[in-house]
Amino acid sequence: MTKADQSEHIGTEATITKFEVRAIRAPLGKPHRTASGTIEVAPLVTLEIETSAGVRGSAYVFVYTPLALEPVASLLKEIEASTRGLALAPAMITDTLAARFRLLGMQGLVGIAIAAIDMAAWDALAKIHSMPLARLLGGTIAPIRAYDSLGQLGAKETADEVEGSLRKGFSAVKVKAANVDASTDVDVISAIRNVAGRGAWVAADFNQAFSVSESISRIRLLEDIGLDWIEEPVRAEDYVGHATVRSKVKVPVQTGENWWGIPDMTKAIAAGASDLVMLDAMKIGGVTGWLRAASLAAAHGLPVSSHLFAEISAHLLSVTPTADMLEWLDLSSAINSTPLTIRNGMAMAFDGPGCGINFDHKALEKYAA
Predict the structure, then answer these.
(1) What ranges do the domains of the chain cover?
(2) CA angle (317 as vertex; 171, 328 as ends), nearest 5
(3) How far is residue 232's CA from residue 253's CA, in Å, rounded to a whole number?
(4) 312 with 59: CB under 8 angstroms?
(5) Per-residue pLDDT tens for 128-139?
(6) 245 backbone dihedrals φ, ψ, rounded to 5°
(7) Are 229 and 275 in contact (CB under 8 A)?
């Protein structure tokens, strides 16, 4: 039996034996301010799946508020008994768990927990096969254009931040807009253009802050300055509202980070809610959900960008037919011994076994919630 045959045999025979779940408050380089509030630390729930092959798969989920740390961690610990002994076949595991939670639904904390399991299972499978996740999925490790994701700042602060982004090699930035005064947004985007130039890629995120009519009027103020997309101008679930905004402005509308799986994505596409697609590896359903969503996006000719989860998203964009941009917002390098590499504004997925999440256990203990 060849080494490749042995690896395949091990992968198909491996089963899940144990979960290791932790609630973490990971430090950020600086607070990240949005229209919905300021994120001071990254509340993460980490999962390590032990397998009968002696290999661990790792993943983390970002739960936005520390209040959700204990509920998500507890739910994962409860689900552990349902997965123990299952074959390490991530899509099968995900579909099995989805069937068990059908009456409750796959949104919210349940969706987050199942996505964590799916991502950790794929990581374990790639490690068993001694391959980067992108190669296991049939792709290659290639540079992906990344943008630096900045918070909601004033014009002077934004200009300083963008100068820092340019020094790091970025030629693309996104800023959290939706300031109380619309003129502040104009000043902020103008400041970015003054620093980065007309050739730079610039986007803004409204974080669901406005009504349809106010979104349209605010976006029109920014059109002549130049935006590559405007993100979530109205409530995420208002697909008709997004479609209306899209029909009235020149700037491409970006949505998708809050789609809970394929059902939400299907509704949004049917409504014509977005020019572009932004997939969140956690909310879309982990690796399994992303692959299904990427196929749907390709069928409709929609460019796909990532939301958060940069390590695993770099692998997933590598096998996405209509891949566009990777969002760089560092949530996990404080606890990850193999963080994503950003070089000259390009993201390079981890070129070792797995998806690039290998926890520093001393850091996990240090930042335990």
Answers:
(1) 3-130, 135-358
(2) 40
(3) 7
(4) yes
(5) 999 999 999 999
(6) -60, -45
(7) yes
Q: Which fold has domain 3-130?
A: Enolase-like; domain 1 (3.30.390)
Return left, alpha or beta for 50; rule: phi > 0 is left, psi -120 to 50 is alpha, else beta: beta
**Which residue reads 């790091």 in tokens?**
168
82-129 pLDDT tens trace? 999 999 999 999 999 999 999 999 999 999 999 999 999 999 999 999
pLDDT tens, position by position, 184-227: 999 999 999 999 999 999 999 999 999 999 999 999 999 999 99
In this prediction, residues 53-62 reach a mean pLDDT of 98
Helices (H) then strands (E): counts for the chain: 13, 13
Which pTM value belongs to this model? 0.94
Residues 6+ away with beta carbon under 8 Å from 362 = none
- The pLDDT assigned to 9 comes to 43
State yes or no: pLDDT of 8 exceeds 70.
no
Tally of residues, the chain: 369
Residues catalogued as catalytic: 176, 307
- Using CB atoms within 10 Å of the CB of residue 158, give its burial: 0 to 12 exposed, 13 to 18 middle, 19+ buried: buried
CA neighbor of 284 nearest in space, from 116, 146, 137, 125 = 116
Provide the CATH topology of domain 135-358: TIM Barrel (3.20.20)
Task: Find residue 26's DSSP bridge partners.
Answer: 42
Backbone angles phi and psi of 253, in degrees to 5: -95, 130
Please name the residue that has the structure tokens 């390009």: 346
- Beta-carbon contacts of residue 11 (< 8 Å; ≥ 6 apart): 53, 88, 125, 128, 129
Task: Report the C-alpha gap between 230 and 246 in whole angstroms.
Answer: 10
